[in-house]
Structures are given as C-alpha cells and as structure tokens.
Amino acid sequence: MAARLIDDDAALAHEHALAASRRAGRVAVVRETVAITAYAVGDFALALRELRTHRRISGSDEQIALIVDSERGVGRPDRALEAGRGVDRTALPVEVRVELAIAMSGARLDLGETERALQELDIPELDPDRAFSWSPALFAARAAVLEELGRDEESAQWQRRADVAAEALGAVDADREVIEIDEVEEIALPEDELDELDEDNLEADDSDEDDDDDAHRADDEAPAAEDDEPAEDDEPVVEESAPKGDDD
C-alpha cells in the first residue's frame, strides 16, 4: 500500500509504513519502506535511523545513496561523505552507484567544494550519447554543478541532454503501454458443449475468488517487460541495461 501511495500522498504512505512496522518491525523491507516514506516527508532523522536498521538486518548497501542524502538532510554533509566512502562502489549495482555519485556531489556542494562536486560526477556512466534509466538525473546533477561554477553554456548543454534523455526514456515507457489485439474469429459451439463450459466456469469462479488477492499482488510486483527502442538521430540511444564494461 505504501509503495502505491508514495507518489500521490507521501504522508499517507508514511502512515501505512509506520503501521506495518508496528506489526513486522524485524522485516527488512518494512524498515526500508518506513525509511523511504520518512525521507519523502522530510523526516531525515527517522529516515536515517530506519535506513541503518534496514542495512543491519539485510546486510545490503543498496540504500547507501539515501543514507548519504539523509545525513545531508540533518545537516551533516561531512558524515554523508564518510558514509559514502565507506562502501565498495564496485560491488554496487550500476543504478545505486550513480545515485551515490549524485548524493556525494550534493554533499560536496553543501560544503562549498564545487570543483570536487563536479569530480564526484565524473564516472563511467556519464555518457552523453546513450540514455539509461539513471541518465536524466545524472546529466541534470552535472548541469546544476556547472551552473554553480558559472559555466552557464556547459550547464545548459547538459540540462538539454537531461531533458532529451528523459523524453527518450518516456517514449520507450509509453510504447510499452501499447497492446496489440489480433482479430479473433468467432466459432459457434454445439449446445451440449456450451452447457459443459458453463458448469466449468461456475466451478472456476468459486476458486478464483480465493486467489484474486494473490493474483493482483503478483501483477503489481511483476517487472515491466523491457524492449529496446531506437532513438532519433539527435537523441541519445536508449539503453535498457548497463554495458558490461561499466561495472569496472
């Protein structure tokens, strides 16, 4: 429930997450959800506490970028940098590594270290010619730092790349919503076969009522199919996954 509400009503999502934590406080994903919703409503101290608990229970560093940002949120950019340096970036998924670079760059900005903030974003995933899911945020972060440095022309160029990447990725997502339906020829069945089908449907309806909730949950959790879409000549190529060499 919290995951479905967070984009529309973060406060209500947070209430649902807190209620779940009172019933299942030792479940890692529950503590993670409390942390994410707390961050969304601006309660960075609670987010930080819950993120640390989630990390201790799960042993996962996949929310390290949120930990760094939460340290920034409570006014400790130096602690944020320390937390970010404490993980092995090569062991992180590419998306997490990019999110961490953006968060670390933000912490540098908080400390007034603008040049070093730009250096934090100099990572292999910063490829202006290809658009991955993380590209718009990464390009926009670089544009913001360049603007802080007074390099307005470069900033505008990177912001345009961020916009183009977002549009290209949005077009791919929109195409995935299209469902093609082929024509189906209607076939008349004999009456005795229709009677048998009616009986089978009645029996199936009884069992379907019990399975309905599980089916809906499975549909919600199922990942969307990924299709490659060619980009226009003046847009970055949209990539569905990280190139093999990017993890080095």
What does this structure look like?
The chain has eleven helices and two strands. With 248 residues, it is mostly helical. It has a two-stranded parallel ribbon. The longest helix has 31 residues, at 191-221. The radius of gyration is 24 Å and the shape is globular. The model is unreliable at 175-190, 196-213, 215-233 and 244-248 (pLDDT under 50).
Radius of gyration: 24 Å
Beta strand %: under 5%
Per DSSP E runs of 2 or more residues, the count of β-strands stands at 2
Strand order of the largest sheet: 1-2
How would you describe the oligomerization state of the chains in this entry?
single chain
Count of DSSP helices? 11
Distance, first to last CA: 37 Å
**Category from helices, strands and their pairing:** mainly alpha
Task: Provide keyphrases for this structure.
248 residues, mainly alpha, two-stranded parallel ribbon, 11 helices, disordered C terminus
Write the layout of secondary structure elements.
Blueprint: H1 2-5, H2 10-23, H3 28-40, H4 44-58, H5 64-73, H6 77-85, H7 94-110, H8 114-120, E1 130-131, H9 135-148, H10 152-176, H11 191-221, E2 237-238
Parallel strand pairs: 1-2
Helix pairs in contact: 2-3, 3-4, 4-5, 5-6, 5-7, 6-7, 7-8, 7-9, 8-9, 9-10
